[in-house]
Amino acid sequence: MKLFCLLVIATNLVCFSVLGTAHAGPTLDAIKARGFVRCGVHRGLKGFCWPDDKGNLDGFDVDMCRALAAAIFGDKNKVDFTPTLTEDRFRLLQSGKVDVLSRNTTWTFSRDTSLDLDFAGVTFYDGQSFMVRKSLGKKSALELNGASICVITGTTTELNLAEYFRANGMKYKPVVVKKSDDAVMAYDAGKCDVFTTDRSGLATTMIRLSRPDDHMILREIISKEPLGPVVRHGDNQWGDIVRWSINAMIIAEEKGVTSVNVDKMKKATDPEIRRLLGIEGDFGKMLNLSNDWAYWIIKLVGNYGEVYERNLGYNTPFKLERGLNELYSKKGGILFAPPMH
Fold first, then answer.
1. What string of DSSP letters covers 164-229?
2. Hey, what's the torsion of the CAs at 92, 97, 99, 104, to 10 degrees?
3. What is the 8-class DSSP label of residue 129?
4. Residues linked to residue 231 through DSSP beta bridges, in sequence order
5. Cβ proximity of 100 and 68 under 8 Å
6. For 277-291, what is the mean pLDDT?
7. Residue 249 phi/psi, 5° resolution?
8. How far apart are CA 94 and CA 12, in angstroms?
9. Interior/surface letters 78-111, b for 16+ CB within 10 angstroms, e for the rest
10. How many Å apart are CA 338 and CA 79, to the nearest integer?
């Protein structure tokens, strides 16, 4: 145990203790015993979770799961992926069937306070929008009065849609479906005029349509959708591991540490880089991990920017601009992590 003291108002000495290492929590103990992380993911959302031509899952949310495996085992492949539906994702996490949910899930007040779950941070800032056929002749969401709209039930999307139309004195005909694939097929088949979901989901969905060039995404963004991993409430140590695995990837991008140069960066003089890579300090021990936990995340998975560009960026079919998901130090971005010290 380390003892720290602060001099307060020059007269009073206030002391507090900080443990040098953390006690293993039940989730981490279970993961180490079984030898892999159980991660709940989407059943199929291109760019975020989608099988490649060999059947292996790829995507932004998938890489967040692999980062946890890299941090714990030094092996990004020690993950078991459980596809989840919108209506069963929280139940599977609550019951212990998965250790973490990494599945384009919006952080809201009610979810954070009433489900006995905790959001470990934001990995993707998004917002809800609308996709329409160009032949419909609509340029704004405010022109959609009376339209039939495909929407996935049990989501924040469904609530946002109702509130937006109510606030603007408009009516619509909901075409409610349970799965995103069903929504895409219904929209593509002409069973609704409009498809609404997160803007990133619309962009990655458009390329799946039979005639992608016949469609457009309207300019309005009608909601805030901070998306990120979710863990069970009560195991604070596991929450810390998930939270700081995200933060480590963001700090790595801030500091210019990549999967390519991470070994060379071990010789850096920047104190935060040295702490990040486990050269100085006992930050891994505070999580009950090895001190090079973040090194393995960066080495095997990459920093935040690498993960984004690999799955969603300009070299992918989606070509999603980073927008709010750009670093705070760049134009338009709000992404940053707390300091690592």
1. HHHHTT---EEEEESSHHHHHHHHHTTS-SEEEEEHHHHHHHHTTSSSGGGEEE-S---S-EEE--
2. -30
3. E
4. 118
5. yes
6. 97
7. -70, -35
8. 45
9. bbebbebbbeebbebbeeeebbbbbbbbbbbeeb
10. 27
Task: Give me the DSSP letters along 15-63.
Answer: EEEE-SSPPPPHHHHHHHHHTSEEEEEES-BTTTBEE-TTS-EESHHHH
pLDDT tens column, 78-117:
999 999 998 899 999 999 999 999 999 999 999 999 999 9
Tally of residues, the chain: 341
Report how far apart the first and last C-alpha atoms of the chain are (Å, whole number).
17
In three-state secondary structure terms, 114 is helix
Query: Which region, left, alpha or beta, applies to residue 9 given φ > 0 means left and ψ of -120 to 50 means alpha?
Result: left
Strand 148-152 to strand 173-177: parallel, antiparallel, or no bridges (unpaired)? Answer: parallel
Asked if 69 contacts 28 with a C-beta cutoff of 8 angstroms, the reply is no
* Residue that the structure tokens 């959302």 belong to: 45
Supply φ then ψ for residue 79, to 5 degrees: -135, 140
DSSP at 264: G
Predicted TM-score of the model (pTM): 0.89
